[in-house]
Amino acid sequence: MQFAQFYHPSTGWNGRDFTGPVKLIPVCGTEGVLPFDGRWSLTRCVNHAREVCKKRGYNGFTINVGSTYLNERAIRSLEVVKPL
User: Fold this and answer.
1) pLDDT tens series, the chain, 84 aa
2) What is the separation of C-alpha 67 from the centre of its chain, rounded to a whole number of angstroms?
3) What is the pTM of this model?
4) How far apart are CA 12 and CA 2, in angstroms?
5) Number of domains in the chain
6) d(CA 22, CA 17)
7) Which residues span the domain enclosing 36?
8) Environment class of residue 52 by beta-carbon count within 10 Å: exposed (0-12), middle (13-18) or buried (19+)?
């Protein structure tokens, strides 16, 4: 299974207040992943993930492959579409 994992900014919570560093973290839930047809090329997956990332307002994505969402590895590193 190939899928995109989307990323958005963290809140900056450091345990006391929101002055900690803001970094990109994975989006939770069903909107955080986008499964692809297994016949698609990596280029097509990346282009589609980039379009959906912009449409949903996220900051970046990775392309992952694995038998499940919990047993996966990145085959394309984080691509930032909208910088912090």
Assistant:
1) 999 999 999 999 999 999 999 999 999 999 999 999 999 999 999 999 999 999 999 999 999 999 998 999 999 999 999 999
2) 18
3) 0.92
4) 31
5) 1
6) 12
7) 2-14+21-80
8) middle
